[in-house]
Structures are given as structure tokens and as C-alpha cells.
Design goal:
single chain; about 210 residues; alpha/beta; 5-stranded parallel sheet; 9 helices; about 50% helix; about 10% strand
């Protein structure tokens, strides 16, 4: 199956792009953030492994993971970042592969889009996907979008961005790029649909 690796920095608009792909008939979407949330729910494999490592430290009053506390610690401590990624990333990867195997056997989809926030930070998914698609925008636009969306400080936003591959490096590595500096969601929708139609037109996918 043809696999598109969809990526972009925080605030780039990759989530909006993934929602557009999700609505295209016969295109399957795998979102690694959604898998991460799923496996870290109470008593799920990621949750259990984090509790084994840190005890109750990351539990909130209702005994679920305090995701914001984990996020802050990940971007303030290289060791915690490495440890938690070492716990979660293998589980996420196995879940992703299992999902791809299932939909490939079903033979119902033209292609699959895998939403991979850290696609260019390792070779793990670059070796898996057929083509990479970057949702790109200026860094100042990223910061403004995240500030308006999330209740986190500018300092933390900048830390998150500094831990990601630079914009220039993403642009260099990406097979295809969609510019998303506009605040007009309809432009992004047109660009995603155009990308999809080009895939179909160029017969890069297995049309039923």
C-alpha cells in the first residue's frame, strides 16, 4: 500500500490537514498522536509502563496520566524525554504497523496517510512511508497559532520547537510541501485535495 507520511512542526496545521484527508473517500488515516493517547489511557500498555518507571508521580487526582505535567518535564529534561520516548515509541510503532497490515488486507483504500509529528527526527518512519508531505509555515505563525490554541507559555513553545528538526531541514527532506501560512482554511483544503488528485492522476496508488 502507498503510505504518505504527513508531518509538520507544532502549529503548522498538520492536524487540520489530517482532518481534510480523513474526509476523502477511500483514504485511510493513521494518527500517531491518537495512538499515543490511546495507549496511555488508564491500564493501557503505555500507561502501565510509565507507572512502572515513575510510580504515581505522573498521576492526577483521578489516577490518570497528567499529560501536561509529562509534556513540561519532557521539554525540561533530556533524560525524561529519552526515557518516556523509549517507553512509548516502540508501542506506538507496533500499533501503527498492526493497523497498516489490517487495512492492507482489506484492500478498500487507495492509500493511507500516517500523521507523524517527528517524522524527520529519526529514520523509523522515513523507511516505512512511500512519500513525505510537509505542512509548512513560518515560525512566527507557528508560535501565534499555538498561543491562541493552547494554554502554554511562549517559553515552552520555543522549547518544543527547538527540539524539533529545523524548518529548513524539514523543507530539504520533504518530498512534497504544502504552504500553510494563510489563515484561510479553505486554501489548505484546496491544496490537500489537489495533492490527493495528483496522487490519483499519477497512478501512484492502487485504485480499486
Amino acid at each position: 500500500m502507498f503510505l504518505v507520511g504527513l508531518t509538520g512542526g507544532i502549529g503548522s496545521g498538520k492536524s487540520e490537514a489530517s482532518n481534510i484527508f480523513k474526509k476523502i473517500p477511500n483514504v485511510y488515516l493513521v494518527d500517531l498522536d491518537e495512538i499515543s493517547k490511546r495507549i496511555t489511557q488508564k491500564n493501557k500498555p503505555g500507561f502501565i509502563k510509565i507507572i512502572e518507571k515513575y510510580g504515581n508521580y505522573y498521576l492526577n487526582p483521578v489516577k490518570e496520566l497528567d499529560r501536561k505535567k509529562i509534556q513540561v518535564d519532557i521539554f525540561n529534561s533530556k533524560k525524561i524525554k529519552k526515557d518516556i520516548e523509549g517507553i512509548l515509541h516502540p508501542i506506538i510503532y507496533r500499533s501503527c504497523i498492526d493497523e497498516i497490515k489490517i487495512i492492507t488486507r482489506q484492500k478498500k483504500f487507495y492509500y493511507a496517510v500516517i500523521v507523524i509529528p517527528l517524522l524527520f527526527e529519526s529514520d523509523t518512519y522515513q523507511d516505512l512511508v512511500s512519500e513525505t508531505l510537509l505542512i509548512d509555515c513560518e515560525e512566527k505563525t507557528q508560535v501565534l497559532r499555538v498561543q491562541s490554541r493552547d494554554d502554554i507559555s511562549t517559553q515552552l513553545i520555543n522549547k518544543i520547537m527547538s527540539c524539533q528538526t529545523s524548518r529548513k531541514e524539514k523543507q530539504r527532506k520533504a518530498d512534497k510541501i504544502i504552504d500553510n501560512n494563510s489563515q484561510n482554511i479553505s486554501k489548505l483544503k484546496r491544496d490537500v485535495i489537489e495533492y490527493h488528485e495528483n496522487l490519483i492522476h499519477n497512478k501512484l496508488v492502487n485504485i480499486k
